[in-house]
Structures are given as C-alpha cells and as structure tokens.
Amino acid sequence: MEKLVAHFHLPGAFEFYELYRLFLSLYKEHREYFYEWSDIPSVYGSPTDCLWGGGRCEDGTADPKDVLDLLNENGISARLTFSNSLLTRDHLSDKKCNSLCKLFNSLKQPKNGVIVHSQILIDHIKENYPDLYLVSSTTKVILDEEELIKELDREDFSYVVPDFRFNKRFDFFDSLTNAQKDKVELLCNECCYVGCSDRKTCYESVSHINLGDSAPEHLCTAPGGSRGYLFSKAMENPMFISVDDIKNIYLPKGITNFKIEGRGLGSAMVLEMLIYYLVKPEYQIHVREAIYLDNSLDLF
Question: The whole model's pTM is what?
Fold first, then answer.
C-alpha cells in the first residue's frame, strides 16, 4: 500500500513559516480535508544569505529553530537547499551554513536532509554531519538516461530530483528497479520553457549571486520567460504533472515522490499550489477560509 501514497515535498520552509504553521495545523486536525493517498514527508529551503544556497536566491527570515520545531512536531523532515554548483574548498568553512547543518543534524527523528549539487559539499556533509540524508539537486540538469541511472544508483543519495524534462518519459520509469523508483522525486509544477538550453547557466547565475560574485546576472530569453512564474502557465507546460496524472499514471508505475516548486513566490500563490495538490475539491474552500481569515498571516 505504501506504493499508493504520493509523497509531496513542499517549498519555502523559511519563507513560508507562518503559512505552514496554519496549514500543517489543518493537516493534522482535519485530515479528512486532504487526499488520503497523499502525505507530506519534507519541506525544503534555506534562510537568506546562505553561501551554499542554490536554485533560487532565498529570502527566508524565519528562525531555524522555530522551523525545526514546527516540522518536528508534525513528524516532517526539514531539508536545507544547499545546491550551489560553484563551491570551492574555501567556502566549506562558512560559519552560517555549518551552524545550520549542525542544528539540523542534531535531530534524529525524523531525519533531516540537504539538497546538494557540489561534490565537495557532499563529502563535507558526509564527514561532518553524517545523520543528514542527501538529495541530488535538479540543478545538475541531467538529461541523459544513463547518467540519471548512475545518479539513482549512488549510495550517497536518498532521493534524486531529475530535470523536469524527464517527467513524461514513462518508458524510462518502467525500466527502473523498485529501488531506483523509490529515489525518483519529480518536479511536478515547473514553469520553464521545455526547449530551454540555458537552464544550467541560469542556475549557475544564482550560485554566483549567492557567493557574492560580480558575474553578470542571467537574463531569461526563453518564450514567456519575461512573465515570470505563473501557476496557470505551469499547468499548460507539457511537463506539468497534474493531480490526476499522479493518481492514475505515476502511482501505478511506482513513482511516489513529487517536489512542488515555489520558494521565490508569495505565500498566497504557494497556498494555491498546496491546495491543488493536497486538498480534496469539496474542502478547498474550508482551507482557504481558515487561512485567509487568520489575522496572524499576511498573505501576499
């Protein structure tokens, strides 16, 4: 039966702390609102100004201890997004990032993790914070099937997030072993242009920014790129994974892990994504009302 459960890994542990404080309370107290075939094993992100950060430039300001306490209370793993692809050995001494790893490493149940790209950071975490599990980042932009299989077979990783352009390669998923399938974590709501050839350059630009480098910022020239992220646009993407797709295609194939994008968006937009993927249609208004009418949350 475990194969029939969709595991959703959620964005913005530090950006959307207040939203998750309310949303996870509803998830615990009103489980009937949520799809019985879904659960929330992890929430990912990192605080602002983390040298090791990648994928997005973070602006999360929640206290890391508060984030850990909230997720731990709900039996949910916290993941640090440390997917900077340009790290050198000199960067490994960064005090803030090491302190975060030490804090996250200190909690054993549920285990916390780190989303990584750089091999030297992988080695550093394995040596110094052995209780953190590792997730291979989509920022590697792996497009070759044989290369992805090698990544899935690496003992270093508990999960591997492929490039979103793997999402509809059903024959490939059918060829995987059960152990490999258990590691696959698909990015289900990506908005980027399928034919983009600059994805790795874009991620490297973010890595430069997080390191404080003077390299010029990458400007997206892909069709529709100037519009930024829109969930409605993501739904039109040929690689979009819908709720029906998850229930009727992916779960029967044994693909059970799904990553929701959204760290750089506002909390109202992220709420809509959480509702879409996790909440039964007849209860969606109940979740909206409970959160919209809570005066402690400033939705934007």
Answer: 0.92
CB neighbour list of residue 204: distance below 8 Å, 6 or more residues apart: 85, 86, 218
Q: Is residue 68 part of a domain?
A: yes
Residue 300 has a pLDDT of 61
Residue 297 belongs to a domain: no
Q: E strand or H helix at 78, and its extent?
A: strand 77-82
What CATH number is attached to the domain comprising 168?
3.20.20
b vs e for 85-112, b when ≥16 Cβ sit within 10 Å of the residue's Cβ?
A: bbbeeebbeeeebbebbebbbebeeeeb
**Tokens at residue 131, please?**
């209780």
Q: Is residue 298 part of a domain?
A: no
pLDDT at position 130 over 80 = yes
pLDDT higher than 80, residue 58: no
- Dig out the tokens for 181 from the structure: 């399938």
Total of domains in the chain: 1
pLDDT of residue 221: 62
217 lies in some domain: yes
In this structure, are residues 268 and 15 in contact, taking their beta carbons and an 8 Å threshold?
no
Widest CA span of the chain, in angstroms? 53
Question: What integer is the mean pLDDT of 232-249?
Answer: 95
**Residue 21 scores a pLDDT above 90:** yes
Full domain range(s) for residue 111: 2-292
- Decide if 106 contacts 71 (C-beta within 8 A): no
For residue 116, what are the β-bridge partners? 82, 136
Of 230 and 11, which is predicted with more confidence?
11
3-state secondary structure at position 17: helix
- Per-residue burial over 29-50, b if 16 or more Cβ lie within 10 Å, else e, is eeeebbbeebbbbbbbbbbeeb
